[in-house]
Write a structure and sequence with these properties.
Blueprint lengths: L7 E3 L5 E4 L16 H56 L4 H15 L2 E10 L2 E10 L12 H9 L3 E7 L2 E12 L2 E11 L1 H51 L14 H50 L4 H32 L8 E4 H11 L1 H6 L3 E4 L6 E4 L1 H17 L6 E9 L2 E8 L6 H4 L18 H11 L3 E7 L2 E9 L8
Parallel strand pairs: 9-11
Antiparallel strand pairs: 1-2, 3-4, 3-7, 5-6, 6-7, 8-10, 11-12, 12-14, 13-14
Amino acid sequence: MLRLRAPGVWSLTGRQVGPVNRDLVAPASEVSVNSVRNRLALLFFAIVAAAVGFIYLYVVPQLRSSLTAEQLRRLEAVGSEQGARLDAAMTAGISQQRLRALVRGIDQRTGSRVTVLGVREGDSGPQPSFVVADSELERTAVLPGYPAASVAAATGSAASAVETVGGERRGESAIALSDEGEPRWVAVFSTDLADVDDNVDLIRRQILIAGTIALLAALGAGWLVARAHARRLRRLEKAAEKIADGDFSTPIPVDSSDEVGQLAVTFNEMQKRLERLDSARREFIANASHELRTPIFSLSGFVELLEDDDPDPEARAEFVRTMREQVARLDKLTVNLLDLSKLDADAIQIRREPVELGDVARRLAGEFGPAAERHESAIEVGEGAAAAAAADPDRVAQIMRILIDNALTHTPEGTTIKVGAHIDNGSASLVVADDGPGIELRARERVFERFYTGDEVGGSGLGLAIARELALRMDGTLELRSRRGRTEFELRLPAGAARSRG
């Protein structure tokens, strides 16, 4: 028996699954770190921060290394170009004054400090030991350690290195100057790398400034975008609250084709279906109340007549027949409600065994014979080839009872109902057709909906819904084809081996 409860969530049978607990729903005005808006904004911020950090940690060191390498290549080129002149001058025994003038001239032309070092034999081989000449101040020429000069003196080939002198980096390129094949001097071409460091510091500052601006912009843009999405999600939340309260009148505006827009479209479709379901539920409650009240009122009246009066045998028999009809109506409604409840609870067991559909058709035609006579209609069973299906025989019979009863209930007197079975493309079909007025177009799409009644004849509107659900549980289908002057329901099931007889 259906009972109305507080607004909440309703199942398809009209039962309330549970009330809406509004204490579990955070108000839209309460914004926390866990809100979608803030999490999206923080995600944007984190992505941009990671990108800026990567650029800072990868590009700046690479830039310093590249600029330093470029300066060393320039010094190597200068050393290769000027080394021959210095080698010739030192081999010719040029005077100290002329040597100083030569290195100053090279310094002025190349922009590189030139230092000539003397080489002496040490424990580890030839090593630069003293300053012979310097293009700048010779007293400062003794400060560097000249690692490139040591390599050049030991190997006799050009070498480059970076050295820190007085807290400043210097790039050096050394070339060995030989006398009779033995390195006696080393020419060192060096330059201050302060420009490189200044350029790298400038780039670092620019990256930090641009990164800060990008982070702020990302945070603001992410917050705005997330706010827009959060506003759209709040619309869905408010619409869900209205639906929970039974208000289906406010659709959600669809303002985009993205995922949230598609969700809004789906939500609106769900809202329409729930509205139809709620309307059908209300209609069903009214119909069920009428269906229950009429036979109960009728039975109550006959019981009073039987108790208070002493009818003659003919009237008593009429009373009993009418009471049986009312009890049958109550039994039918009760069975439908029970079957619907079992379907929702997935408690109906489906067997799989061979079922001869022609035998089912003939048996049920005989079962509905008296009802057809009272309706002044005829039930004809077509003769055809054996049509065996793999299905539950009891459920197949239940579906056929629903279809035949539906045809007798919703067609005028004198209608011919034809029942036939056949095999088609590996499927076994059982067809119930009538030559009644047909089903209106607007009702064809809804005849299988629960609680829907397409005319004023009455009934619970559950039979066809139960029939289709049972067909689906047996891996089959139940289809409707209707036009003026003919309505046809076809139950299509997987074909099975015919059961042997004898």
